[in-house]
Amino acid sequence: MKQLDFKEFYRADRDVCLRAVLASVGDRQLAEDLVAEAFTRAWTGWAKVSRHPAPRAWVVRTALNTCVSWWRRRRREVALAADHEVCGPAATDAALDPALLNALRRLPRRQREVVAFRVFLDLDTAATAKGLGIAPGTVTAHLARAVAALRGELVSVPEQEDRS
After folding, report:
1. How many Å apart are CA 39 and CA 45, to the nearest integer?
2. DSSP assignment letter at 161
3. Most buried of 66, 69, 103, 132 (most Cβ within 10 A)?
């Protein structure tokens, strides 16, 4: 029974989790690796993860934590230039508009994470706060800032024509 439940979870939620992680890290290959690692960890701890109030959030949070761990390990191994971006070049993905993905990459990390949880995982403020380990008010503030920044970048206001 354990295996069937996990298979159903994996089939139903893999793409959603991948899009959420992709929105947060901005690199398709890295996102795929992180999600694969997170689902592997979910499988090994399925008894606990299956009882989690938001298993998708658990997978995404695990993927993002893994990214941080990999980055820290890599940072110790290779000295990075000050202007180096850990996430790598912009990725294209059929499920995400490249302009949106590029705009998300320019957001601060915490804002990207909030957008991933609130928009891509469709979690409420309380679940997002719990998943990210921050206060609900902080989630709301980060989401508002992220939406304002994305709106400023992605929404073009047509210039009014002079009708003199």
Report:
1. 10
2. P
3. 132
Question: pTM of this prediction?
Answer: 0.67
Residue 159: CA count within 13 A, CB half-sphere: 3
Instruction: Give the tokens for residue 91.
Output: 């990725």
Cα–Cα distance, 131 to 112 (Å, whole number): 14
Tell me the two tokens of residue 150. Answer: 């994305």
d(CA 42, CA 74): 24
Cα gap 12→39, rounded to integer Å: 12
* 139 confidence band (pLDDT: 50, 70, 90): very high
Give the per-residue pLDDT at 110: 92
Instruction: Report in angstroms the alpha-carbon separations of 157 from 100, 151, 153.
Output: 17, 10, 11
Query: What's the token pair of residue 158?
Result: 């047509």
Give the pLDDT band (50/70/90) at residue 102: confident
Q: Which two tokens stand for residue 127?
A: 């679940």
Please compute the mean of the pLDDT values over residues 94-113 and round it to a whole number. 84
Alpha helices in the chain (DSSP H): 2-25, 28-44, 46-49, 55-77, 98-105, 109-115, 125-132, 136-154
Average the pLDDT over 145-155 and give the result: 89
